[in-house]
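Protocol step 6 of 9: fold each sequence in the batch and record its structure tokens directly after the sequence line. For illustration, a two-sequence batch is reproduced in full.

Sequence one:
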Amino acid sequence: MSAQQPVRPLTVIKNNFSKQVKVRLKNDIVYVGMLLEADNYMNLVINKGVEYMNDVKKASYPYILVRGNNILYIQLDYSE
């Protein structure tokens, strides 16, 4: 029986660069777009992001910087 190595959350996120993600913030704002960057604090840069509030599209942005401590969850490899 072999013990599996634990996978760090940041490693999983970095393996999903250039893929669509959905990020829900603690204030219920949702951003959907292509994940470009992430740092050790889990700050994210999203390209061609769309902002949703209560499932209603509010705005589109060329780039979005999301501060890591505001993130409720990240859905990787997201497709609408």
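Sequence two, same batch, same settings:
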Amino acid sequence: MKSSEAINELSGALCKAQSQMGGAVKDSSNPFFKSSYADLTSVIKAIKVPFSDNGLTYTQFPISNEQGVGVVTRLMHISGQWLEEECVLPIVKRDPQAAGSAITYARRYALQSIAGIPTADDDAESAMLRTEPEKVISAEQCESLADLIGEAGADEAKFCKAFKIKNRSDLPASRFSRAVTMLTTKIENNKATAA
């Protein structure tokens, strides 16, 4: 791993961002292994808002060497501090499609690792053993969700069903950023469709 001379500000920002992130949802399927996995889009969705709110960003560049192909992932803070790591995967077949698949795979795992987020099933929150009840969103966050639901033209009942809650106010605080990301994506998609 490589880093800037100091990483104190980056570390503090990453700590705050991680407290706001949920897991990357396993929403893609692999029919060959009959399993589900969190794709690159899910990983990006999980980190997008918490990273932005805490002055964090990242870049990923494809690399290749005699061992295979992969990416260099650099996590950066608004202060200029950074962390960087390479992830190289072997490829059996040396063609563009195999290289592209390996690079996408490397991007997903490298980004997930550098951000420190786990993958989770949609109902992983309910499957976790907890020693104390999880905190729910604040009244302000609840109102913010109401505004986003209205702006997105979303059905609140379907929203609650998707998050396995009875009411908007029951949303666990740890899932707030995921809900915001989901609704803002819907708003952006609606605007793009209307344009």
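Proceed to step 7 once all outputs are recorded. Observation for sequence two: The first strand starts at residue 2 and ends at 3.
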